[in-house]
Design brief:
The chain is built from 13 helices and 15 strands. By secondary structure, the chain is an alpha/beta fold. The strands form three sheets. Strands 1, 2, 3, 4, 5 and 11 form a six-stranded mixed beta sheet that branches. The structure holds prephenic acid.
């Protein structure tokens, strides 16, 4: 790029805009061509029935990794570049029909933000009342995929999501990491007016210190989602909600306190759930559910095959098995894809020692 005239003088406004117009023409032409090629790739996959049959998360992850690799030294951040390319792929995939994605509604939740971050805007979002319903709608085929919160960097695991995997046949096909900024939203403009604060229990937990310092006397009322909190706060001057920016727009509330989360790196991790497993992308994780026979050293025995294969374990969490008192299942995450030789060898060895090993899914590691 050369933004200067050959003699070194800067271009004037009209000339610079002409250059931008010319570049836009090229970009538009290329996006159109890309859409045609995406359609041809679709045809190469054979006569398939629905959008879900064309979706390839492992390929999308590879495309976006290449975008990041090419972006070094660019003016736009990796996040921005990835967002733009996600939207292009989202539009290419939606040429016939958009994917249907279920999430914990109503409109304006962080789950909805996670959906748009991962799948782009060319989808049909299905806001559902509970996480349980997200699982049910995907299992029934009414949604192609679902997005459910799984853990927060300050508040820990969302147990209600994890427990649903114990009985569900669904698979984990992706993970999404979303930086979560919480705001105090109200119809009132005065902090002194606020006597009640509504929010999801996870969000109340993420803003504990701020609430203690700024609204020590206000009652904290847990509700089913942040958007539901915003909906309630819109009805009274003495009420506020803790929720994201989108909820402020949707429910017409003012921001009384901005970015009130206690930790500046507050991040929520979501799983994409679907009905089938996808092939490796080259940089994947595998989630497993394992139950052990009740005997000394059982958990140790179960985990050694992963150490033997030199696989790093990124998470382990125990949950009540609900089959008997003091019986547990373990959620384990390891690096790699279940089709990789080392992962499949470790899973086979663990299966021989465990009461049950269920592969919940192998999926590309969240990009940004
Ligand atoms: O490569 C493919 O399989 C495509 O269908 C193309 C494409 C793309 O736009 O790059 C579109 C949708 C898929 O989810 C993955 C990639």
């Amino acid at each position: 790029m050369n933004a200067d005239e050959p003699n070194g003088a800067p271009l004037d406004l009209a000339q610079t805009r002409q250059r931008i117009d010319a570049i836009d023409r090229e970009i538009q032409q290329l996006i159109g061509e890309r859409a045609q090629w995406a359609q041809l790739v679709g045809k190469a996959k054979g006569e398939l029935k629905a959008a879900v049959d064309y979706y390839r998360p492992e390929r999308e992850a590879q495309v976006l990794r290449m975008v990041v690799d090419r972006n070094s030294g660019g003016l736009l951040s990796n996040e921005e570049m990835v967002r733009l390319f996600r939207e292009i792929m989202s539009a290419c995939l939606a040429q016939q029909e958009p994917l249907k994605i279920g999430f914990l509604g109503p409109e304006g939740t962080f789950s909805q933000q996670a959906v748009l971050k991962h799948f782009g805007h060319s989808i049909k979002g299905l806001p559902l009342a509970t996480i349980d319903e997200v699982f049910q709608e995907v299992a029934a085929g009414n949604a192609d995929f679902g997005v459910v919160p799984i853990e927060n960097s300050s508040e820990g695991t969302v147990n209600s999501s994890l427990d649903l995997f114990v009985t569900s046949p669904l698979k984990i096909c992706g993970e999404i990491e979303l930086r979560v900024h919480q705001h105090l939203l109200s119809r009132s403009t005065r902090l002194e007016d606020i006597e009640r604060v509504y929010s999801h229990p996870q969000s109340l937990g993420q803003c504990k210190a701020w609430l203690r310092a700024n609204l020590p006397k206000a009652e904290r009322i847990p509700v089913s989602s942040n958007a539901e909190a915003a909906r309630r706060a819109r009805n009274a001057d003495d009420a506020a909600a803790i929720a994201g920016e989108t909820a402020a727009h949707i429910y017409g509330l003012k921001v009384l306190g901005r970015q009130i989360e206690d930790r500046p790196d507050n991040t929520t991790r979501f799983f994409v759930i679907g009905r089938e497993l996808f092939p490796p992308s080259g940089h994947d994780k595998t989630s497993l559910l394992m139950s052990v026979k009740d005997k000394p050293g059982a958990l140790y025995e179960l985990l050694t095959p992963f150490a033997d294969q030199n696989l790093s374990m990124t998470k382990i969490e125990s949950r009540p098995a609900r089959t008997g008192k003091w019986e547990y299942v373990f959620f384990v995450e390891v690096e790699g894809h279940v089709d990789d030789a080392r992962v499949s060898a470790a899973v086979a060895a663990a299966s021989a020692r465990a009461a049950e090993v269920k592969v919940l899914g192998s999926y590309p590691v969240a990009l940004l």
